[in-house]
Amino acid sequence: MFLSLPLYVFASCIGCFSRPCLVRLAVVMLASLMPCAVVLAQDASLPQAHPDTPLVTDDGTAFDLGGVTLPEVGDVLSRYDFVDVGVNVIADPSHDLAPFVRKVIRQLKTGDEVVRIVHVGDSHVRGHFFPGAVKGHLEQLLGADAVVRDYEVFDYGTPGISEETGRGGAVYQVYGINGATAQRFSDERHIDEIAALSPDLLIVSLGTNESVGAKYSRVQHKNQLDQLMRMLAARCPSTPVLLTTPPGAYRRVRGRYQPNANVGLAAATITGYAEEKGYAWWDLYGVAGGDRACVNWWNNGLMQRDHLHFTKEGYWLMGDLLYSAIVNLIKEYVEHRF
Questions:
Q1: In which domain, by residue range, is 230 found?
Q2: Cα separation of 266 and 202, whole Å?
Q3: Residue 117 sits in the same domain as residue 149
Q4: pLDDT tens, 1-21?
Q5: Does 138 map to a domain?
């Protein structure tokens, strides 16, 4: 009846109009028959930075460990008293990381899953010690047979991208660029290379280089981060993202090193953006002491002499912290059956 009524009206009116009027009437009637027609004369719009994908719910069995025991990770952090273990958590209010956690649990129970994590970032990531610690822990937890291991130590000289074997386990790929910012990564070549790795989880660790100058713009930083996230969302629409804050840094003023307050502003921009857009985040800056983060790193002998980069032990501690936060996130999902 919905289709026949307009046609009936159109047919009954043919004798009452001139040819031009009939043409216009025909166009109107055809439009009424095509309520879902595509509007072509319109600029292509950028995808949302965080696609509105509903959380997939189930009966809770996806988060049932089936007798598998997750490791206790508190001991590895106890040797540094400045670390605030209480805030070493991954904030995931939108349960955005649920697909990743489900896959981790399936791998723990079956051993058949390939869990792919891609960690992108600046020189803190490019040095490989920070992500290398997370990589080592996750390979121990989920299995190390998923990648070809042709190196003794995962350090600066080791390729960050590993070849897969096809077997189950953890595939932790590292994509770091010295001096990188969100704007630097907002390049089609980088986005294509990240997307080609098919991550189940994408970790983005930036913010230090956005804050190194004397002046810092929250608006500019947020806009650049948003542009990067939109580009990633366009190429990896179903990949959950974990944003992390920078660890802290000094700035040289009149020949003396002082804590760089801009790092705290950058950290607040990242966590504020994540909360606004529904991304998960991990606040390394807060875990390390916030405004005193760089002082804590330095006083514990974990920073290099440039007061910007860290020792191997410092980066390993960051990796221990992130791994601990990931394990605790999995435990939280298991306990609450999100």
A1: 61-336
A2: 20
A3: yes
A4: 444 434 433 344 444 444 444
A5: yes
